[in-house]
Each structure stands twice: as structure tokens, then as C-alpha cells.
Model the fold of this input.
Amino acid sequence: MQDFHQALSVALALIVRRDPELLAIVLLSLRISLTATIIATVIGAPVGAFLG
Amino acid sequence: MTRFPGRDGIVVLANALLGLPPVVVGRAVYLILSRSGPLGFLGWLFTPAAMIVAQVTLATPIVVALLHRLTEGLWHDYGDQFRVDGASCPRAILELLVIGKAGLLTAVLFAFGRAISEVGAIIVVGGNIRGVTRTMTTAIALETSKGELALALGLGAILIVISITVSATGFFLYRLTAKR
Done:
């Protein structure tokens, strides 16, 4: 439990002071998933509507 | 709208792909992009591009299946009108997507939800390389198995906030567009 509390406070500190590694990971995630979502929509929406 | 041979097959396939395990997709994309695979010459393996390919493979069936369900009713309501107007097929599809924009938005958010929360496929094709292909989910998987809870907890919290934001945005936009 002690470990968990400690980890939680470190985690909060990472977010609050915008840790560069954390920020880079979050931004990469968003970049990849947003790009994938846009491509999937451009391909999938017309196909889905055509099948409808 | 149109009945062509194989149409039911595509519908069944799209629905089946909804439940595809991400690791299997990752493995398949890995084989295709690997040096000896058909697209190996691109050199995309272990780059963000490979991860995008994997997520597109996972997200596209969601968009197809949801849009199919959405437009099934719309074709029924508007199909005759399109035919009377002499609208071409691409034109009719575009009109339908505009009419069903609330449903389209839901599909987009669903697709994004699957993409951002998925770990199995991108860890296989991306390799979880620090600073290059490490995303929130792959970092959480790694840090947790290393026993380093802090970064995993921090990323987990951010991921939850993103999820709730996306869901709330969808909810309010849906209300807004559905009212009209």
C-alpha cells in the first residue's frame, strides 16, 4: 500500500510538471491514433454506406 | 442500396472483424511489413507508420459495420428520392453521410476509442521503442511488468481522461446534431 501511494504521488508529479518523456508518449499515442482514425473513416464510411 | 454478388459476404466479414484480437492483427501486419513480406521494401516495421497501419486495420471494420447499420434505414427512407433525382452513386453516398452525420460521428469516436486503447497490435509491429514507438498503452504494459508503477499510473490517468473527454464530446455533439 505504501508503494502504491508513493507511485501515485510520483505519477501526479510527472503529470503536473509535464515530464518530457510522459508528454512525448502521450503526443505520439494521439498522433498515431488520430491518423489511423481519419484513414479508417475515409475508407470505412463510404464502404459502409455503399453496403447499407 | 445495391445488391451485388458478395455483398452479404462483405457485411459478414466486417462484422466478424469487429471482434478480431489485436495481437492477431499485429502479427499479420508484422508479416506483411517484415523484410521478406510483400510490403517489406517500405521499411515501415518498428516505425509509427506500421502502428498506424495496424490501427487502421482494427478501426476500419468498426466504421464499416456501424455505417452499414446506420445507412440501412436511411437508404430505405431516401433511396427512392435519390433515384428520382437521378443522383449518382458517389453523390448519394455523400448525401447519406451528411444526413447521418450524428451516426457517422459515433462511428468515428468508436474507432478512435479502439485505436487509442489497443495495445496488442501496436506492441507487435511498433516494438515499444523508447522515444520512437512507445505509446501510452505499450508503455503501461512495459512499466507494469517492470514493476515501475509511477509512469504507468500517470499514463493510465491521462488515458482515462482522454477516454472520458472523447465520450463526453460524442455525447454532446450527438445531442446537438440529433435535435435538428
Helices of chain B lie at 7-17, 22-33, 48-85, 89-99, 101-117, 120-126, 136-146, 149-179. The domain at 7-131 of chain B is CATH 1.10.3720.10 (MetI-like fold). Chain B has eight helices and no strands. The mean pLDDT of chain B is 90.
